[in-house]
């Protein structure tokens, strides 16, 4: 039985601030964090592949095709349901994931976006293994994940359309935190 009070899913473009929202929710609102990225890294390493964006996309698409469009977040949901409290699932990428989560309790999808140049500078600064790319590769990676008619592949545009709340992260950290607080207050009411 699900004992979580609220589930927030985070979707958004590359480098838009998904992790920053998660950090704020975990550090200031007491949410537990469940990461699609971490789940995929474990699977990539188990398969003996290099950890990069291509591997992440390929493995995620493979897992979804072999199981269901919502397979990854369903696994995280099961993990989250084992303990009490609010949870945030980071990096929702397919409409099937959104639909599945909406069937499992109080679920709210946050979509975050920012100007592409700002986002590219952010990914360079975070220096993760999947972010060491040129601006052209960055744009190509994002374009590949924006739309798809295949329910097992990423469709960030559709996920954004399905979002309950859309945050703009072109401004300061304080601005983003203010937006998050306003949304949490709306949900609580």
The largest pleated sheet is described as: 5 strands, parallel
Number of helices: 9
Task: Please tally the β strands and state the result.
Answer: 5
Task: Say what oligomer this is.
Answer: single chain
**Helicity level, as a percent range?**
40-55%
> Could you please say which CATH topology applies here?
Rossmann fold
CATH class: Alpha Beta
Question: Could you say what the CATH architecture is?
Answer: 3-Layer(aba) Sandwich
> How many structural domains?
1
Please name the defining characteristics of this protein.
Rossmann fold; 189 residues; 13% strand; 54% helix; alpha/beta; globular
Describe the structure.
- The chain has 189 residues and is α/β, with parallel strands linked by helices.
- The chain contains nine helices and five strands.
- The chain has a single domain, classed as Rossmann fold (3-Layer(aba) Sandwich).
- It is globular and about 45 Å long.
- The model has no long low-confidence stretch (mean pLDDT 90).
Walk me through the topology:
Blueprint lengths: L6 E6 L5 H12 L2 E4 H11 L6 H14 L4 H11 L5 E4 L4 H8 L4 E7 L2 H11 L8 H12 L9 H7 L2 E4 L4 H16 L1
Parallel strand pairs: 1-3, 1-4, 2-3, 4-5
Helix pairs in contact: 2-3
């Amino acid at each position: 039985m699900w004992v979580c009070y609220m589930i927030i899913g985070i979707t958004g473009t590359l480098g838009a601030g998904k992790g920053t929202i998660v950090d704020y929710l975990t550090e200031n609102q007491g949410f537990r964090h469940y990461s699609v990225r971490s789940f995929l890294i474990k699977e990539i390493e188990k398969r003996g592949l290099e950890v990069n964006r291509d591997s992440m996309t390929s493995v995620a698409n493979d897992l979804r095709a072999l199981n269901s469009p919502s397979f990854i977040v369903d696994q995280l949901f099961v993990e989250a349901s084992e303990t009490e409290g609010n949870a945030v699932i980071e990096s929702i990428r397919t409409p099937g994931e959104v639909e599945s989560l909406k069937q499992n309790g109080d679920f709210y999808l946050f979509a975050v976006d920012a100007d592409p140049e700002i986002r590219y500078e952010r990914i360079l600064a975070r220096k993760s293994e999947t972010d060491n790319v040129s601006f052209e590769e960055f744009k190509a990676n994002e374009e590949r994940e924006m739309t798809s008619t295949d329910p097992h592949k990423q469709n960030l545009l559709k996920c954004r359309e399905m979002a309950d709340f859309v945050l703009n992260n072109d401004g300061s950290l304080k601005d983003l935190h203010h937006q998050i607080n306003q949304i949490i207050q709306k949900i609580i009411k």
